Amino acid sequence: MFVGYLKVADRCPVCREDLHHHRADDGPAYLTILIVGHIMAPLIHILFTRFRPEPLVLASLLTVGCVALSLYLLPRLKGLVVAMQWAKRMHGFGTAP
User: Fold this and answer.
1) Domains held by the chain: number
2) What's the pTM value of the predicted model, to 2 decimals?
3) Mean pLDDT for each consecutive 10-residue tract of the chain (97 residues)?
4) In the chain, N or C terminus with fewer CB closer than 10 Å?
5) DSSP annotation of 7
């Protein structure tokens, strides 16, 4: 479905479905922030209250965790948004050529 990390192909290489008219916009980024925030916020609390690491160590670990989780989730959530648009026939999906 993707040509690069986040670039959606103009058409599916398997079924030849046109994908160029998708409108993912900021939806995947919003969902990524929402999910990463809900995972990392309790983790920050648990790490800080139970282990009391040095602030720089805590910030470093959580920064690496947030970036890694964000990079992992972003293309998957973009694929989810485009697939939902396709399934609901939104933004030109499902119209006769």
Assistant:
1) 1
2) 0.87
3) 90 87 91 98 95 95 97 96 90 70
4) C
5) P
